[in-house]
Amino acid sequence: MSDQNVFFDYINEGYSTKGESITLGAAMLDGTAVTNALVKVPLKTMNRHGLIAGATGTGKTKTLQVLAENLSDAGVPVLLMDMKGDLSGIAQPSPGHPKIDERHEAIGIPFEAKNFPVEILSLSQQNGVRLRATVSEFGPVLISRILGVSETQAGIISILFKYCDDNKLPLLDLKDFKKILQYAMEEGKAEIAKEYGRISPASAGAILRKIVELEQQGGDLFFGEKSFDTDDLLRVDKNGRGYINIVRLTDIQDRPKLFSTFMLCLLAEIYSSFPEQGDSGRPELIIFIDEAHLIFKEASDALLDQIEAIVKLIRSKGVGLYFVTQNPTDVPDAVLSQLGLKVQHALRAFTAKDRKAIKLTAENYPLSDYYKTDEVLTSLGIGEALVSALNEKGIPTPLAATLLRAPMSRMDVLEDDELEDLLEGSKLIKKYNKEVDRESAYELLNEKIEKANEEEAKEKARKERESTKRSSSRRTSSRSRRSTRSPLEKVLTSPTVIRSVLGILSKMIK
Ligand SMILES: Nc1ncnc2c1ncn2[C@@H]1O[C@H](COP(=O)(O)OP(=O)(O)O)[C@@H](O)[C@H]1O
Ligand SMILES: [Mg+2]
Fold this sequence. Notes:
The chain is α/β, with parallel strands linked by helices. It has 20 helices and twelve strands.
């Protein structure tokens, strides 16, 4: 048998599957694709997470697109974190290209152009289904982690959540959360101390500053109603194809802390709401995070720990996480060691540091008789990658330099009018994009304070009435109502002033 035939058998055996699978492309020997030596990933192990890495322009995003399309075809819904806004084209078929036909001929699978069911989601008001959740829903533990507060401060947050629960004060957005903190420091101090213990004003103040910091990064965008039901990520169209949900995050690129917070919130919500999944043989949802270095870049240690923990746990819910990034070293080791599928595009060796990174990356791949991994890493062409997956038994497949198939949908963004049409047809936009600001802790506490002030004023007036003549008492009464809080005090405690004062404070502290 020729080398090529031995290699063909080696790949076909190593990548054979009993159940459903996704074909990535054909394995290459000495730089040329071996037709029909297909590299396939079993659906069954797709919840074991993955990495798509490589230098800019080597084809990472297209690999993500190929995986998303094939998952959708297999009836698996997908969630894409689109940092650069370059994935909306999935909603339109590829126009095709002679080069694409050539590629597919070499691989041995016919090229088919088609579009996919797409839903666009967003953190801001425009251009997509709004993704939001209420502060109450996050709960005190997660909110504490998000804010990165100390243990003492986390204790206070728990007390305040309890107080709000007991008193039926819904915490919907950050405005509510700030209000309850202010209330605990001022008007409600005695009342809360009596029932729940004393709250140190210094700690409450520290929590307030953390909230303001989060707000300044735009964190208020994803707290509020109507909260997103993660079941809506699991939709399948009438032909049984999974929806590809694209979250447009172009406006969050320069705010990595907010992005990691958002990712943690979303993963925690998915983790808590999805049922535990047995060995069903297919994933429930696959999440791709493009430009994934951004979630790890500025995350605090506490947040990182939390992300690592959830990566480990979420697998059992049938959810697979795929990180797309330039260098594998962008991903923390604790996460890296949990990744089942690795698609490594070309790396560039410009500097000594690059060469070191390539050596390190090569060492993380299984040994192969057919490739010198570090050499292959620098010589791969565009749309080619080193692949290592997990077979259905969970054992790593043979390392395969792979000529990857092309996306069936458009490799470019939607035109404005195409996007408009898509948004217009969205059922979820109708469900989620109405502004609601129902009565919550903010309004209810304001009412309570107002009432207490009135009571106090009345009480004072009554006492004054008793000691003065009836004729003058009415005037005193109206004056005393106004004077229970001095005008200056009133201005200083108004929400807008507090917000701006704290804004200045938190800038000074940074
Ligand atoms: N699998 C593929 N099939 C066909 N063309 C590809 C493929 N992968 C990459 N390309 C080509 O390379 C370009 C860059 O790919 P892209 O995925 O955007 O790179 P990256 O995300 O790594 O920066 C694409 O616009 C496309 O023309
Ligand atoms: Mg890209």
